[in-house]
């Protein structure tokens, strides 16, 4: 047997031994581990579907409309709609467990989402929240937010959306607000948490990350445009520097403590995702993250607007892996524990809490209540572990 394989098997055996040891010492951990195992199965075979190539906003650095990867004119709307239901039936037969509906703006294609709800129960769609989606749509709805302050919202997104989104989705159990943090809006985290709390909506976080072409334009800056590169300059952009990451870490840690009934996040994930070095092991030739859980490999699929599987690296192919701190790649990289996460009972408990947090972000409480056991969300019975 190859040395590497022997090493991997040894590592797996040691991980399994340590997990058994920790579980043998705590009933609470046993219960959480059972929930984590079930949650992991629900995410075992994900697929990503572009269902819209239109959007009513112009967020700075939008990865969908990135000039290097956006394929304008590819969508054939009539053909998409004619084929969509038979395609969904094939995907169900293929055993897809979790669907991610992407855009541009999926909410502009409500009928496609209603149809998908006839074939699948579990899924997640990212929307800017300016359109109230039909209650028949069963999926988790992630509402992107970029600023609590109205003027900043408009500056960053080309239009102010938050107030409308909060009003439209107030108290909707499908919805969760996803606040994308950047160097200019970190201070607005408490205001955002208060606004979500007051509208009965949970809140989680994403770290703004640049596309490769955005970084190239910042390196050889020749001016802004009127679209997705309106406000960034080499002197002041949305790229998180080392000092910003420390501020993000401290601010989000405080938000977890101050808004326990609203914020869905994990201290361990917050520490990991704000470390100064790149989050992933990068292939030295391509610069692509080798160990990112969002990579489209194995049974994972990414479908473009032609309903054909695309040979992309991940669900955000325009992003630069070295700087990527997107929540999609970050959370999907947490399903298997790293050696340091099983080393002690307390690090193992933190890993369990991370996977439970994934469930709370991407699943719905009605369908998968085990992900929400012990809520207020981040305070599962860690104290009694
Ligand atoms: S909401 Fe913003 S980030 Fe999303 S597709 Fe529209 S412009 Fe891009
Ligand atoms: S999600 Fe993963 S593969 Fe995609 S850009 Fe980020 S690090 Fe790279």
SSE blueprint:
Layout lengths: L2 H22 L2 H16 L3 E5 L26 H18 L3 E5 L7 H8 L5 E5 L12 E6 L4 H8 L4 H8 L5 E7 L7 H10 L4 E5 L4 H8 L22 H17 L8 H7 L27 E3 L23 H6 L6 H4 L2 H18 L23
Helix pairs in contact: 2-13, 9-10
The structure holds iron/sulfur cluster (2 copies).
General description of the model:
With 385 residues, the chain is of the alpha/beta class. The chain has one domain: Aldolase class I (TIM Barrel), CATH 3.20.20. Helices cover 39% and strands 9% of the residues. It has helices at 3-24, 27-42, 77-94, 110-117, 150-157, 162-169, 189-198, 212-219, 242-258, 267-273, 327-332, 339-342, 345-362, and strands at 46-50, 98-102, 123-127, 140-145, 175-181, 203-207, 301-303. It has a seven-stranded parallel β-sheet with strand order 6-5-4-3-2-1-7, with helices on one face. α9 (242-258) packs antiparallel against α10. It is globular. The two termini are 40 Å apart. The relative contact order is 0.14. Mean pLDDT is 93; it is low at 376-385. Bound molecules: iron/sulfur cluster (2 copies).
């Amino acid at each position: 047997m190859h040395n590497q394989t022997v090493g991997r098997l040894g590592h797996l055996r040691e991980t399994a031994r340590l997990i058994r040891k920790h579980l043998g010492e705590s009933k609470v951990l046993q219960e959480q581990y059972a929930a984590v195992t079930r949650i992991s199965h629900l995410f075992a075979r994900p697929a990503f579907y572009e269902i819209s190539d239109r959007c009513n906003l112009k967020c700075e650095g939008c990865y969908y409309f990135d000039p290097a990867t956006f394929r304008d004119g590819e969508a054939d709307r009539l053909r998409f709609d004619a084929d969509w239901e038979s395609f969904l039936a094939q995907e169900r037969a293929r055993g897809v467990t979790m669907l991610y509906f992407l855009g541009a703006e999926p909410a502009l294609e409500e009928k496609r989402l209603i149809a998908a709800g006839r074939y699948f129960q579990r899924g997640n769609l990212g929307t800017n929240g300016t359109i109230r989606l039909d209650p028949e749509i069963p999926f988790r709805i992630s509402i992107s937010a970029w600023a609590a302050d109205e003027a900043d919202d408009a500056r960053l997104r080309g239009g102010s959306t938050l107030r409308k989104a909060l009003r439209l989705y107030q108290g909707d159990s499908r919805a969760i607000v996803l606040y994308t943090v950047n160097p200019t809006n970190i201070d607005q985290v408490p205001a955002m948490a208060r606004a979500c709390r007051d509208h009965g909506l949970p809140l989680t976080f994403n770290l703004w990350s640049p596309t490769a072409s955005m970084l190239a334009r910042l390196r050889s800056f020749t001016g802004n445009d009127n679209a997705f590169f309106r406000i960034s300059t080499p002197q002041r952009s949305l790229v998180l520097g080392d000092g910003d990451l420390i501020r993000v870490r401290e601010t989000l840690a405080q938000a977890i403590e101050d808004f326990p009934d609203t914020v869905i996040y994990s201290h361990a994930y917050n520490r990991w995702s704000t470390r100064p070095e790149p989050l992933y092991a990068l292939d030295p030739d391509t610069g692509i993250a080798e160990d990112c859980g969002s990579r489209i490999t194995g049974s994972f699929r990414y479908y473009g607007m032609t309903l054909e599987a695309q040979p992309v690296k991940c669900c955000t192919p325009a992003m630069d892996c070295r700087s990527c701190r997107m929540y999609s790649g970050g959370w999907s990289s947490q399903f298997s524990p790293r050696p340091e996460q099983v080393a002690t009972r307390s690090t193992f408990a933190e890993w369990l809490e991370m996977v439970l947090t994934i469930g709370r972000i991407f699943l719905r409480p009605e369908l998968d209540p085990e992900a929400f056991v012990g809520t207020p969300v981040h305070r599962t019975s860690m104290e009694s572990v």
